[in-house]
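Sharing a chain and its predicted structure for anyone who wants a worked example. Both blocks are below, sequence first, C-alpha coordinates second.
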Amino acid sequence: MAKKLWRFPHMRYGRFSNYPGERHNRTVWHAIRSFGKLLFARAQRIPTRLKSWVSPLGNPHPLDFSSLSPEIEIIWVGHSTFLIRAGGKTILTDPIFDSISYFLNFKRLTKPGIAIDLLPKIDAVVISHNHPDHMDEPTLHYLKEHHNPHIFVPFGDKEWFVRRQFERVSECTWWDNHQLSNELGITFLPAVHWSQRGLFDHNRSLWGSWMIETSHSHGKQHVYFAGDSAYGTHFKTIAQRYSSIDVVLMPIGPSEPRELLRCSHVDAEEAGQSFLDLGAKSLVPMHWGAYRLGTECPMEPIERLQSWWKNMASRLKGRNLWNLKMGERKVVPLPVSSEQGEKPKTIITDPSLLDQTINMHQIDAHLRR
Protein backbone atom coordinates (compact mmCIF):
# COMPACT_ATOMS: atom_id res chain seq x y z
CA MET A 1 0.00 0.00 0.00
CA ALA A 2 1.29 3.42 -0.91
CA LYS A 3 2.07 5.76 1.94
CA LYS A 4 0.23 9.04 2.21
CA LEU A 5 2.40 11.76 0.76
CA TRP A 6 2.25 15.19 2.32
CA ARG A 7 0.59 17.73 0.07
CA PHE A 8 3.22 20.33 0.86
CA PRO A 9 6.97 19.88 1.38
CA HIS A 10 7.94 18.49 4.75
CA MET A 11 11.27 19.53 6.24
CA ARG A 12 13.12 18.88 9.48
CA TYR A 13 16.60 20.10 10.42
CA GLY A 14 17.09 21.57 6.97
CA ARG A 15 16.34 18.38 5.02
CA PHE A 16 13.24 17.48 3.05
CA SER A 17 11.42 14.16 3.32
CA ASN A 18 8.52 12.47 1.59
CA TYR A 19 6.85 11.50 4.87
CA PRO A 20 7.36 12.52 8.50
CA GLY A 21 9.80 10.11 10.11
CA GLU A 22 10.84 8.67 6.74
CA ARG A 23 13.69 6.17 6.90
CA HIS A 24 15.56 5.27 3.74
CA ASN A 25 16.81 1.74 3.12
CA ARG A 26 19.93 3.00 1.33
CA THR A 27 22.40 1.48 3.79
CA VAL A 28 26.11 1.13 3.01
CA TRP A 29 25.65 -2.61 2.51
CA HIS A 30 22.79 -2.04 0.07
CA ALA A 31 24.92 0.45 -1.85
CA ILE A 32 27.95 -1.88 -2.07
CA ARG A 33 25.91 -4.89 -3.09
CA SER A 34 23.90 -2.94 -5.67
CA PHE A 35 27.01 -1.34 -7.12
CA GLY A 36 28.59 -4.79 -7.55
CA LYS A 37 25.50 -6.05 -9.36
CA LEU A 38 25.48 -2.96 -11.53
CA LEU A 39 29.13 -3.39 -12.54
CA PHE A 40 28.38 -6.96 -13.57
CA ALA A 41 25.26 -5.88 -15.46
CA ARG A 42 27.16 -3.15 -17.31
CA ALA A 43 29.59 -5.78 -18.59
CA GLN A 44 26.79 -7.66 -20.32
CA ARG A 45 26.09 -7.12 -24.01
CA ILE A 46 23.61 -4.38 -24.82
CA PRO A 47 20.68 -5.86 -26.78
CA THR A 48 20.92 -4.96 -30.46
CA ARG A 49 17.17 -4.29 -30.55
CA LEU A 50 17.66 -1.36 -28.15
CA LYS A 51 19.08 0.63 -31.05
CA SER A 52 15.79 0.24 -32.91
CA TRP A 53 14.25 2.64 -30.38
CA VAL A 54 16.24 5.56 -31.78
CA SER A 55 14.93 7.28 -34.91
CA PRO A 56 17.32 6.67 -37.83
CA LEU A 57 19.85 9.38 -38.54
CA GLY A 58 18.59 11.66 -41.26
CA ASN A 59 14.95 11.23 -40.27
CA PRO A 60 13.60 14.77 -40.79
CA HIS A 61 12.56 16.77 -37.73
CA PRO A 62 10.95 20.14 -38.49
CA LEU A 63 12.44 21.67 -35.37
CA ASP A 64 11.83 25.31 -36.11
CA PHE A 65 8.33 25.04 -34.60
CA SER A 66 7.34 28.12 -36.59
CA SER A 67 3.71 27.05 -36.87
CA LEU A 68 1.22 29.00 -34.77
CA SER A 69 -0.97 25.92 -34.27
CA PRO A 70 -2.33 25.56 -30.71
CA GLU A 71 -1.54 21.84 -30.72
CA ILE A 72 1.07 20.58 -28.25
CA GLU A 73 4.01 18.78 -29.86
CA ILE A 74 6.30 16.40 -27.97
CA ILE A 75 9.65 14.88 -28.96
CA TRP A 76 11.37 12.33 -26.73
CA VAL A 77 15.08 13.12 -26.79
CA GLY A 78 15.86 10.22 -24.45
CA HIS A 79 15.91 9.37 -20.73
CA SER A 80 13.76 12.11 -19.09
CA THR A 81 14.53 14.76 -21.69
CA PHE A 82 11.58 15.93 -23.79
CA LEU A 83 11.29 18.81 -26.21
CA ILE A 84 7.79 20.22 -25.85
CA ARG A 85 6.20 22.93 -27.97
CA ALA A 86 3.17 24.41 -26.21
CA GLY A 87 1.48 27.78 -26.03
CA GLY A 88 3.93 29.34 -28.44
CA LYS A 89 6.93 28.38 -26.27
CA THR A 90 9.51 25.60 -26.39
CA ILE A 91 10.25 23.73 -23.15
CA LEU A 92 13.00 21.23 -22.36
CA THR A 93 12.58 18.81 -19.45
CA ASP A 94 15.51 17.49 -17.34
CA PRO A 95 18.02 18.03 -20.16
CA ILE A 96 20.94 15.64 -20.64
CA PHE A 97 22.55 14.80 -24.00
CA ASP A 98 25.68 12.83 -23.11
CA SER A 99 27.04 10.45 -20.48
CA ILE A 100 26.15 11.17 -16.88
CA SER A 101 28.65 13.71 -15.60
CA TYR A 102 29.93 12.32 -12.32
CA PHE A 103 32.83 10.16 -11.26
CA LEU A 104 31.28 6.82 -12.25
CA ASN A 105 30.76 8.22 -15.77
CA PHE A 106 27.83 6.06 -16.83
CA LYS A 107 28.06 5.82 -20.60
CA ARG A 108 25.07 6.53 -22.74
CA LEU A 109 23.67 3.37 -24.37
CA THR A 110 21.76 5.15 -27.14
CA LYS A 111 22.29 8.45 -28.90
CA PRO A 112 19.93 11.34 -28.14
CA GLY A 113 17.00 11.56 -30.52
CA ILE A 114 18.07 15.12 -31.35
CA ALA A 115 21.63 16.42 -31.38
CA ILE A 116 22.03 19.27 -28.92
CA ASP A 117 23.27 21.63 -31.64
CA LEU A 118 20.09 21.02 -33.68
CA LEU A 119 17.72 22.18 -30.96
CA PRO A 120 15.33 25.00 -31.80
CA LYS A 121 15.26 28.08 -29.61
CA ILE A 122 14.60 26.91 -26.03
CA ASP A 123 12.45 29.29 -23.99
CA ALA A 124 12.27 27.38 -20.70
CA VAL A 125 13.81 24.43 -18.90
CA VAL A 126 12.06 22.56 -16.07
CA ILE A 127 14.09 20.47 -13.61
CA SER A 128 12.46 17.77 -11.47
CA HIS A 129 15.39 17.24 -9.07
CA ASN A 130 19.14 17.70 -8.88
CA HIS A 131 20.49 14.22 -9.67
CA PRO A 132 23.17 14.42 -12.41
CA ASP A 133 21.08 12.49 -14.94
CA HIS A 134 18.34 15.14 -14.61
CA MET A 135 20.31 18.31 -13.89
CA ASP A 136 23.34 17.82 -16.13
CA GLU A 137 25.93 20.59 -15.79
CA PRO A 138 27.54 20.47 -19.28
CA THR A 139 24.11 20.47 -20.95
CA LEU A 140 22.88 23.37 -18.84
CA HIS A 141 25.97 25.44 -19.60
CA TYR A 142 25.47 24.82 -23.30
CA LEU A 143 21.84 25.90 -23.07
CA LYS A 144 22.80 29.05 -21.18
CA GLU A 145 25.36 30.01 -23.80
CA HIS A 146 23.25 29.27 -26.88
CA HIS A 147 19.64 29.77 -25.72
CA ASN A 148 19.62 31.57 -22.35
CA PRO A 149 16.33 29.92 -21.30
CA HIS A 150 14.41 30.62 -18.10
CA ILE A 151 15.21 27.67 -15.82
CA PHE A 152 12.71 26.49 -13.20
CA VAL A 153 14.20 24.42 -10.38
CA PRO A 154 13.07 22.84 -7.09
CA PHE A 155 13.47 24.84 -3.90
CA GLY A 156 17.05 24.73 -2.67
CA ASP A 157 18.70 24.34 -6.10
CA LYS A 158 18.85 27.97 -7.22
CA GLU A 159 22.09 28.58 -5.33
CA TRP A 160 23.83 25.94 -7.49
CA PHE A 161 22.92 27.94 -10.59
CA VAL A 162 23.78 31.31 -9.09
CA ARG A 163 27.31 30.09 -8.27
CA ARG A 164 27.71 29.27 -11.96
CA GLN A 165 26.51 32.66 -13.18
CA PHE A 166 23.08 31.58 -14.38
CA GLU A 167 20.79 34.60 -14.25
CA ARG A 168 17.32 33.46 -15.34
CA VAL A 169 16.47 30.95 -12.61
CA SER A 170 13.26 30.60 -10.57
CA GLU A 171 13.00 28.41 -7.48
CA CYS A 172 9.75 26.52 -6.84
CA THR A 173 8.01 24.60 -4.11
CA TRP A 174 5.06 22.26 -4.68
CA TRP A 175 1.94 23.84 -6.20
CA ASP A 176 3.84 26.96 -7.33
CA ASN A 177 2.56 28.19 -10.69
CA HIS A 178 4.36 30.32 -13.29
CA GLN A 179 2.79 31.83 -16.40
CA LEU A 180 5.17 31.74 -19.35
CA SER A 181 2.61 33.48 -21.56
CA ASN A 182 -1.11 34.16 -21.64
CA GLU A 183 -1.61 30.71 -23.13
CA LEU A 184 0.97 28.69 -21.17
CA GLY A 185 1.47 27.93 -17.49
CA ILE A 186 3.63 25.45 -15.57
CA THR A 187 3.07 24.14 -12.04
CA PHE A 188 5.55 22.31 -9.79
CA LEU A 189 3.87 19.30 -8.18
CA PRO A 190 4.72 16.56 -5.64
CA ALA A 191 6.74 13.38 -6.21
CA VAL A 192 8.21 10.64 -3.99
CA HIS A 193 11.95 10.77 -4.45
CA TRP A 194 15.11 12.34 -2.98
CA SER A 195 17.89 14.76 -3.90
CA GLN A 196 21.69 14.77 -3.69
CA ARG A 197 24.70 15.90 -5.73
CA GLY A 198 27.53 15.81 -3.19
CA LEU A 199 28.51 13.82 -0.11
CA PHE A 200 26.74 15.97 2.45
CA ASP A 201 23.72 17.56 0.73
CA HIS A 202 21.27 14.64 0.92
CA ASN A 203 17.72 16.05 0.64
CA ARG A 204 18.87 19.66 1.11
CA SER A 205 16.80 20.58 -1.95
CA LEU A 206 13.31 19.58 -3.01
CA TRP A 207 12.16 17.26 -5.82
CA GLY A 208 8.92 17.04 -7.73
CA SER A 209 7.04 16.81 -11.01
CA TRP A 210 5.61 19.35 -13.46
CA MET A 211 2.28 20.08 -15.11
CA ILE A 212 2.34 21.99 -18.39
CA GLU A 213 -1.01 23.64 -19.15
CA THR A 214 -2.13 25.44 -22.29
CA SER A 215 -5.31 27.48 -22.82
CA HIS A 216 -6.69 28.27 -26.26
CA SER A 217 -9.94 28.55 -28.15
CA HIS A 218 -10.34 24.76 -28.14
CA GLY A 219 -10.10 24.57 -24.35
CA LYS A 220 -7.30 23.49 -22.02
CA GLN A 221 -4.66 20.81 -22.43
CA HIS A 222 -2.38 19.29 -19.81
CA VAL A 223 0.90 17.40 -20.12
CA TYR A 224 2.19 15.89 -16.88
CA PHE A 225 5.94 15.28 -16.54
CA ALA A 226 6.42 12.92 -13.59
CA GLY A 227 10.20 13.37 -13.13
CA ASP A 228 11.44 10.52 -10.92
CA SER A 229 9.08 9.06 -8.34
CA ALA A 230 8.11 6.00 -6.37
CA TYR A 231 4.45 5.01 -6.34
CA GLY A 232 2.42 7.17 -3.96
CA THR A 233 -0.89 8.85 -3.21
CA HIS A 234 0.28 12.07 -4.86
CA PHE A 235 -0.87 10.79 -8.25
CA LYS A 236 -4.48 10.66 -7.05
CA THR A 237 -4.07 14.05 -5.36
CA ILE A 238 -2.88 15.56 -8.64
CA ALA A 239 -5.85 13.95 -10.41
CA GLN A 240 -8.16 15.75 -7.96
CA ARG A 241 -6.66 19.06 -9.04
CA TYR A 242 -6.53 18.30 -12.78
CA SER A 243 -9.56 16.38 -13.93
CA SER A 244 -8.39 16.21 -17.54
CA ILE A 245 -4.78 15.23 -18.26
CA ASP A 246 -4.01 14.63 -21.91
CA VAL A 247 -0.53 13.07 -21.69
CA VAL A 248 1.57 11.60 -18.89
CA LEU A 249 5.35 11.38 -19.34
CA MET A 250 6.10 8.60 -16.87
CA PRO A 251 9.34 6.83 -15.81
CA ILE A 252 9.26 3.03 -15.99
CA GLY A 253 12.73 2.18 -14.63
CA PRO A 254 15.12 1.36 -13.15
CA SER A 255 13.37 -1.34 -11.16
CA GLU A 256 16.07 -3.70 -9.86
CA PRO A 257 17.30 -4.31 -7.18
CA ARG A 258 13.74 -3.72 -6.01
CA GLU A 259 14.54 -3.64 -2.27
CA LEU A 260 16.70 -0.60 -2.92
CA LEU A 261 14.68 1.21 -5.57
CA ARG A 262 11.07 0.75 -4.48
CA CYS A 263 11.23 3.86 -2.28
CA SER A 264 12.32 6.13 -5.15
CA HIS A 265 11.37 4.61 -8.53
CA VAL A 266 8.20 3.07 -9.93
CA ASP A 267 8.63 -0.12 -11.88
CA ALA A 268 6.73 -0.68 -15.12
CA GLU A 269 3.59 -2.04 -13.45
CA GLU A 270 3.51 0.75 -10.87
CA ALA A 271 3.97 3.27 -13.68
CA GLY A 272 0.87 1.84 -15.33
CA GLN A 273 -1.11 2.05 -12.08
CA SER A 274 0.07 5.64 -11.59
CA PHE A 275 -1.23 6.45 -15.07
CA LEU A 276 -4.62 5.00 -14.09
CA ASP A 277 -4.58 6.99 -10.82
CA LEU A 278 -3.99 10.17 -12.81
CA GLY A 279 -6.96 9.41 -15.06
CA ALA A 280 -5.00 10.52 -18.12
CA LYS A 281 -5.67 9.82 -21.78
CA SER A 282 -2.23 8.86 -23.08
CA LEU A 283 0.98 7.47 -21.57
CA VAL A 284 4.52 8.08 -22.84
CA PRO A 285 7.12 5.87 -21.05
CA MET A 286 10.51 7.42 -20.30
CA HIS A 287 13.62 6.95 -18.12
CA TRP A 288 14.69 3.77 -19.85
CA GLY A 289 17.06 2.84 -22.69
CA ALA A 290 19.57 5.69 -22.34
CA TYR A 291 21.61 4.53 -19.32
CA ARG A 292 21.99 1.38 -17.28
CA LEU A 293 20.96 2.65 -13.84
CA GLY A 294 19.58 -0.63 -12.49
CA THR A 295 20.59 -4.26 -12.71
CA GLU A 296 17.82 -5.29 -15.10
CA CYS A 297 18.29 -5.63 -18.85
CA PRO A 298 17.86 -2.22 -20.55
CA MET A 299 14.88 -3.56 -22.55
CA GLU A 300 13.08 -5.02 -19.54
CA PRO A 301 11.11 -1.91 -18.45
CA ILE A 302 9.45 -1.34 -21.83
CA GLU A 303 8.74 -5.04 -22.33
CA ARG A 304 7.12 -5.26 -18.89
CA LEU A 305 5.01 -2.17 -19.57
CA GLN A 306 3.81 -3.57 -22.89
CA SER A 307 2.88 -6.81 -21.17
CA TRP A 308 1.05 -4.94 -18.40
CA TRP A 309 -0.86 -2.88 -20.96
CA LYS A 310 -1.96 -6.02 -22.78
CA ASN A 311 -3.10 -7.68 -19.56
CA MET A 312 -5.02 -4.57 -18.46
CA ALA A 313 -6.70 -4.01 -21.83
CA SER A 314 -10.21 -4.10 -20.37
CA ARG A 315 -9.42 -1.18 -18.02
CA LEU A 316 -7.53 0.78 -20.65
CA LYS A 317 -10.22 1.16 -23.30
CA GLY A 318 -10.04 4.61 -24.83
CA ARG A 319 -6.53 5.23 -23.50
CA ASN A 320 -3.31 5.27 -25.51
CA LEU A 321 0.20 3.92 -25.00
CA TRP A 322 2.58 6.03 -27.06
CA ASN A 323 5.85 4.10 -27.25
CA LEU A 324 7.88 6.93 -28.72
CA LYS A 325 11.28 6.31 -30.21
CA MET A 326 14.04 8.70 -29.20
CA GLY A 327 13.67 11.52 -31.68
CA GLU A 328 10.07 10.67 -32.58
CA ARG A 329 7.59 13.54 -32.67
CA LYS A 330 4.00 13.31 -31.41
CA VAL A 331 1.21 15.85 -31.76
CA VAL A 332 -1.31 15.89 -28.91
CA PRO A 333 -4.83 16.03 -30.38
CA LEU A 334 -6.88 19.11 -29.57
CA PRO A 335 -9.78 18.56 -27.18
CA VAL A 336 -13.09 17.79 -28.85
CA SER A 337 -14.95 20.25 -26.64
CA SER A 338 -13.83 23.52 -25.08
CA GLU A 339 -15.60 22.60 -21.86
CA GLN A 340 -13.05 20.74 -19.80
CA GLY A 341 -15.05 20.70 -16.60
CA GLU A 342 -12.13 20.95 -14.19
CA LYS A 343 -12.84 19.99 -10.63
CA PRO A 344 -12.58 22.60 -7.87
CA LYS A 345 -8.98 23.63 -7.30
CA THR A 346 -8.91 22.57 -3.67
CA ILE A 347 -5.59 21.09 -2.63
CA ILE A 348 -5.94 20.53 1.10
CA THR A 349 -8.59 17.95 1.93
CA ASP A 350 -7.47 17.41 5.53
CA PRO A 351 -7.37 20.67 7.56
CA SER A 352 -5.03 19.07 10.09
CA LEU A 353 -2.30 19.16 7.46
CA LEU A 354 -2.10 22.91 7.87
CA ASP A 355 -0.50 22.46 11.27
CA GLN A 356 1.96 19.84 10.05
CA THR A 357 3.45 21.48 6.97
CA ILE A 358 6.05 24.17 6.49
CA ASN A 359 5.36 27.33 4.53
CA MET A 360 7.76 29.05 2.17
CA HIS A 361 9.13 31.43 4.81
CA GLN A 362 9.98 28.56 7.14
CA ILE A 363 11.65 26.62 4.31
CA ASP A 364 13.64 29.69 3.34
CA ALA A 365 14.78 30.18 6.94
CA HIS A 366 15.90 26.55 7.24
CA LEU A 367 17.87 26.57 3.99
CA ARG A 368 19.70 29.78 4.86
CA ARG A 369 20.85 28.80 8.32
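Comments welcome. The helical segments are 28-42, 137-146, 158-163, 234-241, 258-261, 268-278, 300-311, 360-367.
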